[in-house]
Structures are given as structure tokens and as C-alpha cells.
Amino acid sequence: MNIDLQILKSLSLKEKILSAAVLALVWGGIVVAVILSDLRIIEDPGTFFWGCIAGSIVLAYLAVKKKKLDLVSLLTPVYAVIIFTCLDITPNLVLQVLYAASITFLLIRIHQQYS
């Protein structure tokens, strides 16, 4: 736990803001999808996956700004587009939650291993 606090303290303000934006987009997008579905603005919250794609783009930008490049984080926008638009799997909330969890772990990983 102490190591995690040291990593957080070592991040620049820009990195902290970008990290918060990644989490807000991927997890907040799921919340927005559920709210829009409850308000009957959209029919299926699983098809509102734009928060995951936007969070992936911000994560890739954050990865570009690191001293060492993390190819997995750099390619997350490509993975997001493939997973949510090109596969024969219908996007759903479970897929969004799993994707958001993987993006969260990648965010932690990029700060621990590439800072």
C-alpha cells in the first residue's frame, strides 16, 4: 500500500487528471448507460459503450506520454473498437464491466511499471 501511495505522489498533475478521466469515462459511461436506459432514452444499456472507447483513447494518450512505451495500453482503442463493434457478440453491460475492469488494471500497471 505504501508503494502505491508513493507512485500516486510521484505523478504529475496532468497524469493524475488523465488517470481520473480514464476511470470516469469507463465507469461513468456504464452508469450513464444505465440511467439512459432507466429514463427510456435508449433501449439497451449494453449498446451504449462509448465511455469504454473514450476511456481507451485517454489511456492510450497517457501511455504515449510515459518514458517507456506500453504497447498494450497504446492499442486499447483498437481493442475497444474491435470488441464493441466488429465481433459477432452483442455488446452488453457484463462486457462493458469486464472491459472497464481491464482498463482499470492497465491504468494501475502503466503507473507501476512505466513511470
Commentary on this structure:
The protein starts with a helix and ends with a helix. Helix 2 (13-38) packs antiparallel against helix 3 and helix 3 (50-64) packs parallel to helix 6. The chain is mostly helical and 115 residues long. It contains six helices and no strands.
Strand and helix map with partners:
Layout: H1 2-10, H2 13-38, H3 50-64, H4 71-74, H5 76-86, H6 93-113
Helix pairs in contact: 2-3, 2-6, 3-5, 3-6
Residue share in helix = over 70%
Low-confidence stretches: none
What structural class should be given to the helix and strand makeup?
mainly alpha
Biggest pleated sheet: none
Radius of gyration: 15 Å
Number of strands: 0
- What's the order of the H and E elements? HHHHHH
Question: What is the average per-residue confidence, as pLDDT, rounded to a whole number?
Answer: 91
Strand content: under 5%
Provide a count of the helices: 6
Distance between the termini: 17 Å
Molecular shape: globular
